[in-house]
Each structure stands twice: as structure tokens, then as C-alpha cells.
């Protein structure tokens, strides 16, 4: 349920506008039913890099993400239930399943800058209250700025969303830890992505890359979407916990 903003936080009109801007973030981030192919890339400050091939199966509020590397094959599966309210991680190398609770959901996955919550596709509008909506000047260019507070705080104390002033496309999301310190920032990039739907293949200009900069380590993590196949109809058994440890 979308959190309400009190009149003490913002006038009703500004609160409504802020909610609409946050809704644009949810609309922009890729949460397509079917199958999404992607690459997850970790680039450390030393220049060393690691790449995983991702397959994301989604049906409604449930999704299953698979992570494979060339050297090790399947390394991880993450099962997200109820739009990320329930998160289960299966380590294929140790053959163990872990349920992620509360703050554990904010642990970095595979040492990248993306936490389990970041990968869950959880609705920002449903889980954060926009508290300030204003304009921000960056290098001579005005941006729309929205500050967000979590309805139930576990680790992120505040998020700052930036949007283009004309298109209102979300372009950056800054994450502050529980002490209020900015520790990572995600740039949202748009570009053509191959989309299969109704037996036809087209290219759509949608979110194509999420680039997460870890300010503590200097590492950059990139989630790059390569293909969306809306014709894939995932079998419901994919999203059953009892099947998560099957290879």
C-alpha cells in the first residue's frame, strides 16, 4: 500500500506531484512478465572485473533470477515472492538456501553494489514516502529532485531521486545508509533493447543499463538488459520454494 504523506511534510499538491514522480521510477524500471536476459558486471577499482549472465523469469508478483558465470556455470538463484516481500537465495555451489530477512535483504549480492532488495523489483512508491520535491541545478542543468523516506526503515535511511525536467525520466537514484551517509548512487540509462512479443521482434527505447557506483570501494556494478521475451510463459513451479535447489 502506498504510504501517505502528512500535511506537515508537504502541501497536498506538492505531495501528489512527488508521488507521481516516484511512480515514474517504478514504471521505468524493467519488470516485464516473461523472460528478461541481462548481464551483471562488477568492475573493481583495481580494474579487475567479473561477469554473470542473468535470466529473470517473472509472473505477476513472483520472479526468479539465475546467475551464471563462464567459469562456474550456475552460481546463484534468487526467488522473489510477493514483489520482494519474501526473498530466498540458493547458493548453487554450497547447495544451501538462505531466507533473507529484514536487514539481510540489503546485503550486497555477489559483492556487487546491488543488494537483494535492489534486484527484487520492489515498488518504490509502495515502500517509500516522498518528503521533498524541488528543483536542483547540476552543472547548469535543472533537474527534478525527490527525497524519499522508507515507510519501514531497515537499512536505507533516505533515497534521492533525480528526473529530467522535460521528459520526467528518472536518471539517478542516490542511496543513504542507516546513518544518513550517501554510500552508493545508481545512474539509469536508456537505449534500444530487443523485445519479443506476439511472435514479433522489435527494439524499444527503455531502461537498458543500471550503473551502481559504490562510494566506499570505488567499484562499479552494471546491470545491462539485453533482451525481453514477453512470449515466454513461466511455469508456476519455477516460483515454488521446494524447487529452488534443483539444478
TrEMBL record:
Superkingdom, taxonomy of origin: Bacteria
Start and end residues of each Uncharacterized protein TP-0789 domain: 92-246
Protein name from the UniProt record: Uncharacterized protein TP-0789 domain-containing protein
